[in-house]
Each structure stands twice: as C-alpha cells, then as structure tokens.
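HUMAN: Would you supply a protein with fold tokens?

ASSISTANT:
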Amino acid sequence: MMTLKEKSEENWKAGIDMYCKHKYNIAANRLYYALFQAAKGYALEQGKMKDEDKNAHFEVHRRISTFVTIKNSTRLYGQMKKFREIADYRPFSVCPNKFSQAFIADVEKMYKELISIISGG
C-alpha cells in the first residue's frame, strides 16, 4: 500500500514530466494532486484533519498557510486548484503563459516544504 507521501512524490514526478513535454492539462492535474496529497498527509500527521473528511480539498485550501512558511501559500494553492479545474472541466486548456516555470517553481517550494516534514502518512 502506498502512503500519501509516496503518491504525492509519484504525482509530482509525473506532473513535472508532463510539463516538460508541454502537456499542461495533465501537468496541472498531477501537480495539483501532488500538492494536495502532501498537504493532506501533513494535516493527518498533525491531527489537523481526519482521513475520512469529506471536505478535504476545502480544508486543505483553507489551512494551507498554517502548514507551510511559504509567502502567499493560500494564493498559490488556490491558483494551482484553478489550473486543475481548467484542465479537468473546461472546454479550453491551461494557458502555458500563466502556468509558467516561475509559477511552478513557487509551487515547488511549497511542495518540497510539505514533503520534507511528513513522514509518510
């Protein structure tokens, strides 16, 4: 059985690979879920969330700034979620000009901070 940390790492790697291949919709989906799984893993370990929480996505978004020290973490997480929603539900694609390397680098800082503090949960 995979831990949330392992799933998160697998999704992050796949997302970066897809980004490098200019598959921005797939990248947005995988990178969002990597970030979500890392944040949820942290929240579970810290007792800030229950595994069966039906509003996990909302709770992570609401609390992300308390999980990491990255400035603008709530805005970054929210934008990542919007990119994922465009990729999954809209009839148009994620715009590579907005889903930029600089944006991914900022999200990666938050992701790496979360991954470094969770044990595997």
